[in-house]
Amino acid sequence: MNRCTTESTENAEKRITKKEDNSCLHHALSTEEGNRRLAETSKNAFILEIKDLGKSFGGVEALHNITFSVPSGITQAIIGPNGAGKTTLLNCISGVIKPTRGRIIFLGKYIENLQPHKIAALGISRTFQNVALFKRMSVIENVTIGLHTKTRSGFTSCALRLPPMIGEERYIFERAREWLEFVGLADEMNKEAGSLPLGKQKLLEVARALATEPRLLLLDEPAGGLNTAETEQFGDLIEKIKNLGITVVLIEHDMNLVMERSDQIAVLHYGKLLATGTPQEIKKNPQVIEIYLGKEE
Amino acid sequence: MNRKNFPGFLVFILLIAIFPLLAQRSSAINHYIDVMVFGGIFGIVAIGLSLLMGYAGQISLAHAAFMGIGAYSSGILTTHFNLSPPIAILLGIAVTSAIAFAIGVPSLRLKGHYLAMATLGFGVIVHIVFNEEVKWTGGPSGLVGIPGFSFGSWALKSTIHWYYFVWFWVTLFVALALNLVHSRIGRALRAIHEEDRAAEAMGVPTARYKLQIFVISAAMAAFAGSLYAHYVEFINPSSFDLVWSIKFILMVMVGGIQSIWGSLLGSLFLTFLGNEWLQVFAELEILIYGIILLVISLFFPDGLFPVIVRFLTQRKLEKKA
């Protein structure tokens, strides 16, 4: 495996717009592993299907007739230049915004009109591009919020501290601790979330999202702002998450991460789906090369 | 009650229990028992408001109005309809909860401070109704002849009785509120306050929780209002106007917006200021409240209670060292 690990994330974006640096794109990863997994999982049903999805903000069409499907158990990357509509797509899937047209099917259910918390309860969780932690709560308390849908106690049993609620509290904190161990933050669990460095905040967001026990995890630019070593670690974490049987949808600008860790890539450009395919296919796709690297003279 | 809160809670019960015994011995502070009854009643409002403001991050400018609805329900139902006080109180709470629900459904679904706007308008309307419906409310001159609290043959006969009765409820509400904030619901409310889109994405039904805590908070204010009506045996609209709603917010902010103990402390502090220590300033009182609000929000945005706690624990550490 030949990785261009010396590049920082900030440069990654610049790089992909420059023609002379395209070596990384070509040598990023042998996709045999990915292809094998893809072949394995393609037998299964799709976990997520997006059909003719459109979203306009006033006159601006942020998403235009997007149609693609994510097989269960893979890592699906969504790439594209800034403003291509990647985050809008993610927001539609997680219910933060409602699409103007089209349908989103998750595990056979139409979810495009559900409220975000109902979508979360169905098994879709996410992280945020600009890190949306509960900054003044402790690290472990942040993760406990992820366990909200896994517990039942209402206002009355919480206010009265009824025995089932006490049992649930124990369960919540045990599970939260396990998820912190999973991402490697167990030592920091009593710190204030806002006091963590960015890299750890991003890990905490993943732990919080995983605590909802999702079937589908949406990661919005997890490597943004991370250094090379941290990005590498994050890639390993994505692998670990995949091994839990969780399907990952990854929006990312870091091409190393995308090419190494994803099984299938969707390329968005000006709100349109430009191409889908394995990393290998995407790397060879002339249209993709054109938008990322410019047209050959 | 979890283990962490328990020692503080015991100290609190002890202090509340012995306060009247000490105050009775000195004629100079004898009447402090009466002030404490008011402090406790306002404390119930402040605890409810702290749950709403400090935990769910929503501002209500109608808590005096909710208190007023409770008070007038008790007053009208006991004087015009001869209902017994406990039934009147329960009906007052039910009416207030229904109204809060009706206000909350449209205004809490929207992001931002729509609840503050809606409650501001509602508070003004309620105040007008209290003033204009003379036949029922007695208008600006107030409603007189409200009976004291009694339940069957059991009646509260003296200030001391009232003191223990009101503080029994305060203690209960403190316990319930502390339990609530240290639970999945309390954490969810704080999460909503800090970053509601993330809370929602993690599966917290943000709109529903905001509505529920708003209704609970309004119901607590109504209950306090009923206690007020039966204690004073007289109510008039000026006790439930916008100024009082702002005073309740001030109580919560002075003590500590995200602290149940703090909001109780804040309500005691401001009650003593208003009833005792600031009497000499008459109309300038409101100016002083303004200055307090300014100082608190500029220098102690978390309120005084956390500052006091920090001061005490640091001294303890220094002594140990």
How would you sum up this structure, described in words?
The complex is a heterodimer of chains A (297) and B (321). Chain A is α/β, with parallel strands linked by helices. Chain A has one domain (9-293): Rossmann fold (3-Layer(aba) Sandwich). Chain A has helices at 9-17, 23-27, 32-41, 86-94, 116-122, 139-146, 155-160, 163-183, 198-211, 228-243, 255-261, 279-284, 286-293; strands at 46-57, 60-71, 75-79, 101-106, 109-110, 124-126, 216-220, 247-251, 264-269, 272-277. In chain A, the strands form two sheets. Chain A has a six-stranded mixed beta sheet, sandwiched between helices. In chain A, helix 6 packs parallel to helix 9 and helix 8 packs across helix 9 (198-211). Chain A is globular, with a radius of gyration of 20 Å. The two termini of chain A are 31 Å apart. Mean pLDDT of chain A is 84; it is low at 1-43. Chain B is mostly helical and 321 residues long. Chain B has a single domain, classed as ABC transporter involved in vitamin B12 uptake, BtuC (Orthogonal Bundle), CATH 1.10.3470. Chain B is 75% helix and 2% strand. Chain B has 14 helices and four strands. In chain B, the strands form two sheets. Chain B has a two-stranded antiparallel ribbon with strand order 1-4. In chain B, strand 2 (150-151) and strand 3 (154-155) form a beta hairpin. The radius of gyration of chain B is 20 Å and the shape is globular. The A-B interface holds A 94-96, 115-117, 120-121, 125-126, 128, 132-137, 141, 144-149, 151, 153-155, 158-161, 165, 168-169, 172, 208-209, 211-212 and B 1-2, 176-177, 179-180, 183-188, 190-191, 194-195, 197-207, 212, 216.
